């Protein structure tokens, strides 16, 4: 027993120090506390860190411009480790212990779905930056998003393939572990069939896979005119590369999960003849976009991807709503968020609709000569 | 006398849980959530301790049992449209939890069967595989929400439910392993062949350990689902099983009290480390290595058990305890 | 028919990478009877060493090409051998006389440390791995495609396996390794330095993991700190399937898992790929509890 005590004491002390340190810096000042839960580590950390960077920039800009309602915005960020249960814990902590007035997050719909009921029950508005699953905002009237939803994007992709590219026979390769990919594939297929197209083969993979030759070989046998890959760029770049190695030179089409400079860095020349839909393009000559791109590039010395832009817009829309609400009460911010009309963000002109989803244009990007180039914009 | 006494303890624990539950709203929701997670982890770690620590069967499939219990009970309560607070919800929720536990224990039997032929690391990879198979099957079932997860589960689990189950699990396992019958678990763990030679039915003990352990893991899964209100197949991967094994080993294999404490410490540790932001998992991993190297027999080794703590406390308050151990 | 042939080629090239990683698991297991769960993460570090070293080394030997690839691979193998030895010295050696489960938990700790440490140091976003070996098409028809990459992977893997076989069966150190694997006490009584044999084993296993990482990253040029998780797990399954502790078993196991995964993905459904791999493993273990080539150790009373 005696030999055990030092250990017990040291563990207890450690935990106590942690708690004490965590409690430090409570909300004594006049700042408006905003909570962010984001995947800073884990399997999808690359997206979480992008949205976090965008949001940080929005916060610093608004504070430099004198804050909101004469008060500074203070951002508290909690890591979700890319796990839904951690998202629930993080949001509970932000709301009940830190007393944040609004919450921003998350990229993944599964994590947003875990956190949304908690925000709703506490009457704290939540703005999701990139969760595209329709279920998320159905969790209650305090839950909003700044990205478009899967049905809209799926429809746009289907119309683009059918009308613009003029193709009739496609194959789909989706990520079975990812609700985003499954949803997008489903909505694409619905519209594409309605238009009169044909899905000749469907194959699947799991997030984290790196070899897709088996699936691609099987798809190749069905002789499609294009392959639809509604997934993340982490896998999409390898999928396209391996498809080219297997002599599949047909167009390959993806969604906003593809949007990252890494896509072309990893995929290289093989990315030619691919298309994807996304929220914005860094090539957009619009001054709002160019301003954002140049500031982001100086600050982080890399080009902002769509996730960074969405993180930035989520922050701006929330701050704008707080300004219009004239106070930080949950219900006031909620009503102001719901009344957002024609907000000029980096990812287009955003209007929050009756279902608390963002209505905004979609941009189609084509990869030409190993470079992402703007192709067209489709209005909602 | 001894059996009687432990039943009184159980009753006291249940009453205490009910009383605390009355005042649960007074606790900050964040701390409350951690307290609930501690309870659920105690159930998981204690039930794995029966399989791993007492029966000596190295299982890495505990998250799979948990998933079965979580999904089974969630399907039942959702299709019955139970809502928290109503009188009818209590017995039905209890029934749903038990159904979840039963489904899990059927699979526990299934996982237990390989343990009759396989040992050590081979058993570990087999149980890990079965856990993953369960997860993949759930992920492919559309009516369970597939990869999107199962949403909109009623928030039925509260302090009382979780800690009542904690009390029952500890009571059951402590009585099981301390009984004459239960000595057989230790015999099977320490030397299976010798145990068989003196007439201990090793097969039966292993199966009993797997069924009982899986049952409680299933119930823990049910409580978890009805507290978090959202479940997703990715929450029940093999990394979750690892977390539970870590609790058992850090607490000391076969040490009931140690495993309870370890479950609490290892649940609090990552939360306490939130202050160090993205360094937290690195520090957590580092501490885990340091703990294992400096206390290889577990933080609390084989020495700490409740009767010792009890004696230590009562000696201080100078009221002698008798009839212990 | 041509599709089947294509899938078999895909499967063999995947399988030879699994086999190389599985060799590391199996060697450590043969000597210490302990699963080194951090092996997959050593593999990840190997890929990152290659990523950082390649731009420095390549110009020295004149751009990309065989010389650069071999040099990068050697440096990465050396760095990982060093890492493996360090991990063994600091984390596993103090626990050698303890129950195996203790070392296993420590290995999980090391694995988490490398993964989260990697996310902190390298960043979580995937990095494009430089094309060291230019890939050309050898067979390029409508029915069958065979790139030089697949051949390079299979060839290098074979070469390394032959080299490993030579080390273990034809050198003094290899003899010592086999002796230690057979009986620690007896080997040490024969004057074998157990510590240095174990260090050597870790160096060899980690070096192979690094070689596998360079091959892997050349074929799948996207690396990230969590990339070791799944290949590590699958290689471990392969090692157990073949009979952990047996070198040929690791190669056979790797090939079976590689082929099985490819064929299940191509002909059944990728959804059930992992489930079917595990189901096959369990079925084989039920009939051969020590794996395909594993020695079944009879328990002594």
Give an overview in words.
The complex is a heterotrimer of chains A (380), B (325) and C (301). In chain A, helix 2 (45-64) crosses helix 11 (306-325), helix 3 (84-97) packs parallel to helix 4 and helix 8 packs parallel to helix 9 (261-267). Chain A has helices spanning 5-23, 45-64, 84-97, 109-122, 150-164, 179-195, 213-221, 233-245, 261-267, 287-300, 306-325, 330-338, and strands at residues 32-38, 73-79, 102-104, 126-128, 143-145, 169-175, 198-205, 226-229, 252-254, 274-278, 343-345, 348-352, 358-359, 362-368, 371-378. Chain A has two domains: 29-148 and 287-361, Response regulator (Rossmann fold); 150-278, Rossmann fold (3-Layer(aba) Sandwich), CATH 3.40.50. Chain A has twelve helices and 15 strands. In chain A, helix 6 (179-195) links the parallel strand 6 (169-175) and strand 7 (198-205). With 325 residues, chain B is mainly alpha-helical. Chain B has one domain. The radius of gyration of chain B is 20 Å and the shape is globular. The model of chain B is unreliable at 318-325 (pLDDT under 50). Chain C is mainly alpha-helical and 301 residues long. Chain C has a domain at 21-229. Helix content of chain C is 73%, strand content 4%. In chain C, the strands form two sheets. In chain C, strands 1-4 form a two-stranded antiparallel ribbon. A two-stranded antiparallel sheet of chain C has the order 2-3. In chain C, a hairpin with a 4-residue loop joins strand 2 and strand 3 (145-147). In chain C, helix 2 packs antiparallel against helix 3 (66-92) and helix 2 crosses helix 8 (194-219). Chain C is globular, with a radius of gyration of 19 Å. In chain C, 56% of the residues are buried. The chains are: A alpha/beta (380), B mainly alpha (325), C mainly alpha (301). The interface between B and C is large, with 44 and 43 residues.
């Amino acid at each position: 027993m005696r030999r055990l005590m030092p250990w017990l004491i040291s563990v207890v002390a450690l935990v106590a120090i942690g708690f004490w340190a965590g409690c430090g810096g409570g909300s004594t000042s006049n700042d408006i506390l905003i909570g962010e839960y984001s995947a800073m580590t884990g399997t999808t950390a690359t997206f979480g860190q992008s949205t976090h960077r965008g949001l940080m920039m929005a916060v610093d800009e608004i504070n430099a411009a004198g804050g909101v309602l004469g008060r500074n915005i203070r951002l508290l960020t909690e890591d979700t480790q890319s796990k839904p249960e951690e998202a629930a814990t993080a949001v509970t902590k932000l709301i009940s212990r830190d007393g944040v007035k609004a919450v921003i997050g998350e990229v993944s719909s599964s994590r947003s779905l875990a956190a949304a009921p908690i925000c709703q029950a506490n009457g704290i508005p939540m703005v999701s930056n990139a969760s595209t699953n329709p279920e998320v905002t159905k969790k209650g009237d305090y839950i909003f998003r700044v990205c478009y939803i899967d049905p809209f994007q799926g429809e746009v992709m289907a119309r683009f393939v059918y009308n613009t590219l003029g193709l009739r026979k496609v194959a789909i390769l989706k990520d079975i572990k990812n609700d985003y990919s499954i949803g997008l594939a489903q909505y694409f297929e619905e519209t594409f069939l309605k238009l009169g197209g044909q899905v000749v083969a469907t194959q699947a993979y799991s997030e984290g896979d790196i070899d897709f030759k088996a699936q691609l070989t099987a798809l190749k046998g069905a002789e499609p005119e294009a392959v639809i890959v509604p997934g993340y760029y982490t896998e999409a770049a390898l999928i396209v590369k391996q498809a080219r190695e297997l002599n599949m030179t047909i167009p390959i089409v993806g969604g906003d999960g593809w949007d990252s400079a890494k896509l072309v860095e990893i995929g290289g020349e093989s990315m030619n003849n691919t298309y994807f839909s996304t929220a914005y393009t860094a090539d957009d000559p619009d001054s709002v976009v160019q301003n954002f791109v140049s500031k982001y590039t100086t600050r982080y010395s890399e080009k902002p991807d769509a996730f960074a832009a969405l993180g930035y817009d989520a922050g701006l829309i929330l701050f704008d709503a707080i300004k219009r609400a004239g106070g930080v009460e949950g219900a006031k911010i909620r009503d102001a968020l719901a009344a957002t009309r024609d907000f000029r963000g980096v990812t287009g002109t955003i209007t929050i609709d009756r279902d608390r989803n963002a209505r905004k244009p979609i941009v189609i990007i084509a990869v030409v000569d190993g470079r992402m180039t703007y192709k067209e914009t489709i209005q909602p | 006398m001894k059996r009687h006494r432990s039943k009184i303890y159980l009753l006291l624990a249940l009453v205490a849980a009910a009383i605390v539950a009355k005042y649960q709203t007074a606790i900050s929701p964040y701390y409350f959530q951690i307290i609930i997670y501690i309870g659920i982890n105690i159930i998981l770690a204690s039930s794995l301790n029966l399989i791993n620590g007492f029966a000596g069967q190295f299982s890495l499939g505990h998250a799979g049992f948990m998933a079965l219990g979580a999904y089974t009970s969630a399907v039942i309560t959702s299709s019955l449209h139970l809502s928290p607070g109503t009188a009818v919800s209590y017995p039905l929720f209890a029934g749903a939890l038990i159904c979840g536990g039963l489904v899990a224990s059927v699979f526990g039997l299934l996982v237990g069967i390989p343990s009759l032929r396989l040992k050590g690391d081979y058993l570990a990879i087999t149980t890990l595989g079965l856990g993953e198979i369960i997860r993949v099957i759930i992920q492919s079932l559309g009516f369970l929400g597939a990869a999107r997860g199962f949403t909109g589960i009623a928030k039925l689990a509260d302090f009382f439910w979780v800690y009542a189950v904690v009390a029952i699990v500890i009571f059951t396992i402590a009585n099981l392993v301390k009984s004459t019958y239960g000595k057989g678990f230790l015999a099977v763990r320490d030397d299976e062949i010798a145990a068989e030679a003196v007439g201990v039915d090793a097969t039966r003990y292993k199966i009993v350990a797997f069924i009982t352990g899986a049952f409680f893991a299933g119930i823990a899964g049910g409580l978890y689902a009805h507290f978090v209100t959202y479940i997703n197949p990715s929450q029940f991967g093999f990394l979750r099983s690892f977390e539970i094994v870590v609790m058992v080993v850090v607490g000391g294999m076969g040490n009931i009290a140690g495993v309870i404490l370890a479950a609490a410490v290892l649940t609090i540790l990552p939360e306490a480390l939130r202050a160090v932001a993205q360094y937290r998992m690195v520090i957590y991993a580092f501490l885990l290595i340091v703990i294992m190297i400096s206390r290889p027999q577990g933080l609390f080794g084989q020495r700490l058990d409740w009767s010792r703590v009890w004696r230590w406390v009562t000696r201080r308050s100078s009221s002698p305890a008798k009839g212990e151990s | 028919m041509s599709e089947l042939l294509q899938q078999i080629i895909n499967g063999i090239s995947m399988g030879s990478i699994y086999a190389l990683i599985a060799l590391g698991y199996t060697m450590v297991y043969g000597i210490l009877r302990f699963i080194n769960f951090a092996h997959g993460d050593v593999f990840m570090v190997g890929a990152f060493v290659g990523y950082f070293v390649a731009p420095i080394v390549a110009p020295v030997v004149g751009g990309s090409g065989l010389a650069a690839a071999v040099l990068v691979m050697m440096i990465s193998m050396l760095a990982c051998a060093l890492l493996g030895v360090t991990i063994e010295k600091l984390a596993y050696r103090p626990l050698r006389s303890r129950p195996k489960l203790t070392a296993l938990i420590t290995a999980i700790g090391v694995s988490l440390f490398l993964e989260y440490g990697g996310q902190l140091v390298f960043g979580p976003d995937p990095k494009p791995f430089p094309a060291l070996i230019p890939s050309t098409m050898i067979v390029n028809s409508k029915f069958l495609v065979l790139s030089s990459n697949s051949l390079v992977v299979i060839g290098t893997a074979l070469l390394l396996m032959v080299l490993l076989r030579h080390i273990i069966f034809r050198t003094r150190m290899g003899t010592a390794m086999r002796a230690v694997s057979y009986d620690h006490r007896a080997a040490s009584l024969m004057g074998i330095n157990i510590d240095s044999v174990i260090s050597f084993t870790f160096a060899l296993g980690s070096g192979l993991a690094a070689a596998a990482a360079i091959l892997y990253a050349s074929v799948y040029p996207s690396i990230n700190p969590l990339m070791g998780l799944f290949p590590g797990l699958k290689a471990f399954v392969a090692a157990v399937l073949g009979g952990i502790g047996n070198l040929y078993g690791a190669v056979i196991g790797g090939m079976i898992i590689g082929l099985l995964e490819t064929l299940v993905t191509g002909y059944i459904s990728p959804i059930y790929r992992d489930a079917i791999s595990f189901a096959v493993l369990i079925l084989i273990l039920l009939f051969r509890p020590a794996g395909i080539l594993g020695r079944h150790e009879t328990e002594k009373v």
